[in-house]
TrEMBL record:
Biased composition range(s): Basic residues: 101-111
The organism's taxonomic lineage, starting at the top: Eukaryota, Sar, Alveolata, Ciliophora, Intramacronucleata
Start-end of Acidic residues biased regions: 70-95, 115-130
Protein name per the record: Uncharacterized protein
UniProt biased composition (Basic and acidic residues): 54-69
Species annotation: Euplotes harpa
Region Disordered, annotated ranges: 47-130
Amino acid sequence: MKTDALKAQAEGAEEVDQDEYINKVKQSLNAKKEIDDQIALDRLKQKRLKRKRQRDEINKQKKLSRLEANEEFEEGEGEDGDNNDEEDGKEDLEEQEHRRDLNKKKFKRSKKIEEEPEDHSDDESEPEDL
């Protein structure tokens, strides 16, 4: 009987040991998973930060180029960079006049098309008896 009791006690101890072992394994797996998740989050944050820095740098470059363009314009340089605003203004006026002329021609053509009658009924009708 003593041996049976010892065997039962040993089996109970083995079951407890197995349960403890299983719990320890689960805990270590959970801890490993948490660490992996944290690493993934850190990498994601680093990528986002890198993209943000790149966007900021691009925006900074754009802003600087706009400021430089404004400074050049304020210094009196013309559109073509020759410091002759009168000629640039004349060129603009010539372009505007040319566009106006083209628009007038288009308007006249469309007006002519609207004025022409489109009465095709007389073309195919039979001659009337008088």
